[in-house]
Amino acid sequence: EWLRGLLAGGEPDAGDEAPTAADDALRGLIRDLLRFGGFKPTGRSKPSSEYLLRAVSEGALGSINAAVDIGNAVSLRSGLPISVVDVERLVGEARVGLAAAGARYVFNATGQEIDVGGLLCLHDAEGPCANPVKDAQRTKTTPETRTTLTLIYGHRGAAPRVERTGRWCRAL
Questions:
Q1: Looking at the chain, which terminus has fewer C-beta neighbours within 10 angstroms, N or C?
Q2: What is the pLDDT of residues 64-110, one digit of tens each?
Q3: In whole angstroms, how far apart are CA 129 and each of 74, 100, 104, 143?
Q4: Backbone phi, then psi, for 167, in 5-degree steps?
Q5: 168: helix, coil or strand?
Q6: DSSP 106
């Protein structure tokens, strides 16, 4: 029940280390992060944290599973994009870096693709698989997921918020 409340945009418990809601300055820093390698964070390629805010305002954000719901709730409250991937679906070693020009992957069950060229992404041996906009379908959690990796995308200009967000996410 408490998690559903957070997903609906409710306030965290008084004892939680929840960061304050996003503001224009933070949105600007996150968009700068996405632009760093040449990616254009506009239209359908906005940071996932902005998508979540809109989904909540429209009453369209539903529950997926505990791990993803916590990531979404933390992203909503902090204003930071967050990826949650199934560790067992990663191939080989994982690293974070800019995706090569023209890199693409499927991000949903209907087969839609996103061009992630120039975007900061989680990569494995098969290529980019998660980023601050949309995560790859191939590494998303499923009912069989047992181990997840949560990535919080931040900016050094918001370091205290990023650290607080990490602590709160781990606590949840």
A1: N
A2: 999 999 999 999 989 999 999 999 999 999 999 999 999 999 999 99
A3: 21, 13, 9, 19
A4: -60, -45
A5: helix
A6: E
